[in-house]
Design brief:
352 residues, Ribosomal Protein S8, Chain: A, domain 1, three-stranded antiparallel beta sheet, Ldh family oxidoreductase, oxidoreductase
């Protein structure tokens, strides 16, 4: 059964853990906030759930505790950084801050980052961008990762290659964070841990046979691309596009022998757009609000109402800020040993 925790207390807890692991307070608070935002929006596999792995990377030296990203290119409206394994949530937050500072002059700012330690949930970075009235496109890929097989192949080639998008609309933004695989690796790992099958045959074993058994993936298999067994060529094409945007534009990826040893380090593509450089903000909002309203009010083909991407996540964020953050039970179990090791008191659950 899930338990709720006060959002501020949960963020302070994560921040203290990162500080005990050697991060400066400012960086630790940024990290904690990103992971909290993921859980607020309902992305439970990449929120506080990722604190433990980030602590391990910091203590093992796989993540750099100090230093700044190296600027490889900068033309004002475009820049490319080498993070050299700085913590992903911190370095990406820095890039977003830099892009937002430049936006009033540039209108559209695009950035790439190579060798960023894992950036976790993409949607977690979008609320401040969309609340400022801007459009955001964010994607990442992992050069060292081969988990998703192209259509017609039994060999895993792509990483999960998520893409997140947000645009202001009416009562809630149009917002989504989706992988170019039928399911995320985090859900496969969770099913394996709990001894469950996957909801569908979204995996292939090493011989190319469809499977719903997480063990098939763990034993040399792969995850199907978006579109599944029938239309996976669409997901594979989109995966290739996102690897071009993140790896190729960043200038570092699968072509580099050293990338094979980068573990979970990400290549990142970020673009922030101010709609006002194209016309009146009211005209933009009129169109996005109309789209969401038409979508939401379209006829349902079942008992459940039609749901627009962003609608549930935005409502969950507001509710959990007010009533407490609901954590998946195993997250607390995984953090207990770290709290004891780093001598940080566990957050207290909210009473019913």
């Amino acid at each position: 059964m899930s338990v709720r925790y006060d959002a501020t207390e949960l963020q302070n807890f994560a921040s203290q853990l990162f500080q005990r692991a050697g991060l400066a307070r400012e960086r630790a608070e940024v990290m904690a906030n990103v992971f909290l935002q993921a859980d607020l929006l309902g992305f439970t596999t990449h929120g506080i759930n990722r604190v433990a792995s980030n602590l391990r990377w910091l203590l093992d030296g796989e993540s750099r505790r100090e230093g700044e990203p190296v600027v490889l290119a900068d033309r004002g409206n475009c820049f490319n950084w080498d993070a050299d394994f700085l913590p992903g949530p911190w370095v990406l937050t820095r890039a977003i801050e830099q892009a937002l500072q430049r936006l009033p002059e540039q209108g559209v700012v695009t950035a790439t980052i190579r060798r960023s330690q894992h950036i976790a949930c993409l949607a977690a970075y979008l609320p401040p961008i969309v609340e400022a009235g801007h459009v955001a496109i964010l994607t990442c890929s992992t050069p060292a990762e081969n988990t998703v097989s192209p259509q017609g192949s039994r060999d895993p080639l792509f990483s999960a290659n998520p893409i997140a998008f947000a645009a202001p609309a009416g009562d809630y933004p149009l917002l989504f964070d989706i992988s170019m695989s039928v399911t995320a690796g985090g859900y496969v790992a969770r099913a394996a841990r709990e001894g469950r099958k996957m909801p569908s045959q979204c995996l292939k074993d090493s011989d190319g046979n469809l499977s719903d058994d997480p063990g098939a993936f763990e034993n040399g298999g792969s995850i199907l691309p978006v579109g599944g067994a029938d239309h996976g060529y669409k997901g594979a094409a989109l995966s290739a596009m996102l690897e071009v945007l993140s790896m190729a534009l960043g200038g570092y990826g699968r072509a580099d022998a050293s990338a094979k040893d980068d573990d979970e380090a990400n290549s990142v593509f970020l673009q922030i757009i101010d709609p006002r450089v194209f016309g009146q903000r009211a005209d933009f909002l009129r169109q996005t609000a109309a789209l969401c309203n038409l979508w939401e009010n379209s006829r349902s083909d079942g008992d459940a109402p039609v749901r627009v991407p962003g609608q549930r996540a935005w409502a969950a964020r507001a509710q959990q800020l007010k009533e407490g953050v609901e954590l998946y039970p195993t997250i607390v179990q995984d953090l207990q040993p770290w709290a004891e090791k780093l001598k940080v008191p566990m957050p207290k659950p909210l009473s019913d």
